[in-house]
Amino acid sequence: xxxxxxxxxxxxxSSLFGPPIQGQTPNTTAQQPAASAFGQxxxxxxxQQQQPGSLFGTSTQQPQTTGAFGASTxxxxxxxxAFGGLSTNNQAQxxxxxxxxxxxxxxxxxxxxxxxxxxxxxxxxxxxxxxxESPLExxxxxxxxxxxxxxxxxxxxxxxxxxxxxxxxxMLAASGVDPGAAVKDLNEFNFSSGGRVERPAPGPAPTEVxxxxxxxxxxxxxxxxxxxxxxxxxxxxFDNFLEDNITMEWEAQRKRIYEHxxxxxxxxxxxDGSSATPGRESQIGFGRSRRTTKASRPATPxxxxxxFGRSNLQKSAIGTxxxxxxxxxxxxxxxxxxxxxxxxxxxxxxxxxxxxxxxxKLAERIRQLNLARVDxxxxxxxxxxxxxxxxxxxxxxxxxxxxxxxxxxIAEENPEAESFLGNATSRDRRFKDDYLDVNDKSxxxxxxxxxxxxxxxxxxxxxxxxxxxxxVAKYPREANLGGRPDVVSKIQAxxxxxxxxxxxxxxxxxxxxxxxxxxxxIVYYLLRSGHxxxxxxxxxxxxxxxxxxxxxxxxxxxxxxxxxDRRLRRALQERCNNEYNQRVRNAPxxxxxxxxxxxxxxxxxxxxxxxSFAGLNTEIEDWIWLQFVLARENDKATEVAAxxxxxQDLRTSIREIGLKHFPKTPSxxxxxxxxxxxxxxxxxxMFEQAxxxxxxxxxxxxxxxxxxxxxxxxxxxxDPWTTQDSxxxxxxxxxxxxxxxxxxxxxxxxxxxxxxxxxxxxxxLIHLNADLGGEAGRQQxxxxxxxxxxxxxxxxxxxxxxxDIRPDGQRIAGLIEERGSLIGLGEEDxxxxxxxxxxxRFADDNGRTTDAVLxxxxxxxxxxxxxxxxRALSEAVALDIGEDPMRLMPVKPRADGKDPEVQPNSSLSLxxxxxxxxxxxxxxxxxxxxxxxxxxIEDQNRTACHILLQMSEIKTLVETKxxxxxxxxxxxxxxxxxxARGDATRIRHYASKFAGLSQTVAINVPNLLLWTIECCISQxxxxxxxxxxxxxxxxxxxxxxxxxxxxxxxxxxxxxRYRFPPHLHEALARASAD
Length: 1074
What we know:
- It contains 43 helices and 8 strands.
- The protein is elongated, with a radius of gyration of 48 Å.
- Strand 1 (79-80) and strand 2 (86-87) form a beta hairpin.
């Protein structure tokens, strides 16, 4: 059993507080010593000599053992108490404590250091004087070593409570620390030398009498000081940058995490009325105690608050950019439903080229929709999108087109209408109130369900009649239409054609034929095509025939036509049902015309439980039509239970059919049959489920169909912040809702980098739901604005999205501002300015100077514009002469060459300006012409920018070696004392002005000094070389003036508390010495 720190017992180890014990070897024995809890061995070779120890074990051991701190405690027969009490015998030559204190024979190891040697000497003297008379008999002799004194001091301290040890373990465990693992890690340490090495105190440094050594030492200290100052300044600036640019609202984020995982703090539980265990302290995740009071937390407007009113934990409103075509979906429900096929396909064909063409055509329709909305004009969005879908050639295109036309019938969209006057067509958001009504029994909800049934039925009837006309036109000889192309004649021709082709009824089925016409078939197909009035007229014209065949049918059909709800009176309906049931039960098989029974089923709603035609060759569209024509939205209280069949029952049937017969994931589909189930869901008004179902198969079509539905208010939008991970969700009433806004935002990933204008058009449509009442509408508007903000920051198309600048400084409205009425922006709204300022800060932080200049100008912050161009100009001036000039990243141009309406010179655009000097000159010239600009700029910033422009001009003169002109320009700046002529007062005056210079100007003063020195030296050389024929006295005077300038500059720099580069001092020394 090893000690706490596993010091091997077989090797002698040194004391923790002193040198190791010498001259002692372990007594080899067969019995191994065992260390106690604190390292004292409790075994001896002779069991009879073993004595009971105290709580910490007083040992009388023979072999050498290792203490708790790795100290050797080997003795002859001596034992040491737990607290350092020494028990000596005649064989003992020294004493050792359990903690490994210095021994009496420690001098054998070498000289002792510090107080250890002092106490050891006292111990030795005390022992020597023990046999004789002590000069200090009144004082006790020193019998303890330094280690024993430490143990006595520890004994005098407070005793450790064992209960506290247990509490410490629980506290560590609650904090996530495993005490057992920690002890195991500590045991891995192997103290080979055990004892503590006490470092000697450093002695006095030798006197530095060497001048070179002194200067070298001083230079080293100065360099280290400069490095330390630079590191400290960099750290401080970095901390300030973090504080200014990063908003980390930990309290709001922590609260949102708690609510997401259902964690309630102690205060939240008390607020909810739940009682907490008194006196019990607990620690929750993220290092926040539940005892933290709400009053100590910073006030936040909501759990989603951030720099823009929304938490950083929220997902992006527009998603991360991705390539066109197959990509990962952002919705977890779509991914889980798709299984392994978690990628979205733009179309079943999977051809990216065709998909791009399709998206381009659809984007053009969306742009036309927004333009029509801006002008308050009708736009037949359903018919336009159906036209695009009809030309794609997708396998599911026909079903998609049918779905568009079905919704057009429900919404009563008129493609020929040119205005909304006289209800010529439906307005946008017309059905929002009825569709979103939370009360299913309200009149609005009932009217909406009736509208869905009527619209779907009308679409199916129109589609069938169109097929009738196509077939008759395709086979004119068999149809034998004749010269009267009215509805009845077309139906008669259709019946003749089908009879000729022998597919009117199955084999061995008899039809009633009167005067060569199958009257029941004609009546049925008139009803099937939606021509109920024509069917009644046909029956009236053939009244004699029908009375001879069926005397009561004429009464039923005339009643059916006269009532708008297409519902017979109770007495007639019961009579019709009885006749139908009697014929079904009593008539022999194949003896009744199946079209006669079909007419009875449709008009009298007979045998509603069996919603299919018997004995007819029907298609799936005929079955679908029968479901809708039998469904009624009536009062459940007055309706017979057996005849109750409404829209909700129809939806249940369609849902069951979809689960059984249609593919659920793209991997299960091979021939595009998912389009039929999508059509069934649209016909039954299951709009949200239909969009979510289609999204997994063809997300492009699903998104545009959702736009058309949302335009008329036929979608229920979900909360964009609580259901951000699911496309389809349900509210508290279990009604389906769709994440419309995020679906649009994620869709723009395909093209927003190349076509930002189309992305704006799509994101603008998110604001359609802003007309919802209360908080829901505000959240939808907030999502729209957040998506547009992210688009601006991501694409950097500032000149297109936010605006541009004309040469006179006036702004040109961007795409967002042009669609201000569609996203709820008024003239006084500051959304655009807020987005502009945020984009400007973002661009400035990323070093995009031209972007920041444009954005700050558009936001009206002209002072920031001057500050930014001054900083860029200062960096350009700071470059050494001869280096490549500094270039800026230009703004993306507003006109891409595709828009013929944009004139080439209609805007400043900053797209071609990459020179900071040219940028500064352009902006300052613009601001100097209009008081609206320069009155909003601080004088200090404006002056600094002008000085930097002059410095740039001076640098150009230096490069072209125009020394006199350069000195005149420098003298005009009034920064350097070129006119002091040795006057110390004027030099101090110029030195005092240095502190008032702007930082961008001050950092270029060293360069200005170098240029001045170079001008002085070069001009003196030119004068002394005799290149000019001037008076000798004048030449000498000019040379003296130039030398005096150099001397004055040396005095000037010596009075500044500014660390200039060494080469500047060298240049000043050379210029003054020449």
